[in-house]
Amino acid sequence: MFLFRRSLPILMLIALAGGISGCAEKEPPKPATPPPPPPPTPEEIAAKITAEAGLNDPLPAVGDTFTKEAAEALKKTLRNAKSLQSKTPEGQRALQIVNSQLDQRIHALEDAGAWEHTLGAVEAFDILNPKSPKWQTTKETAIAELQKPKITIFGFMQDYALLDFYLPISKETHREKMRPGEELFGVTLMEVIGKNQGLKFRYAQTGQTFDVMTKSASK
Question: Exposure of 18 by Cβ count < 10 A (0-12 exposed, 13-18 middle, 19+ buried)?
Answer without folding.
Answer: exposed
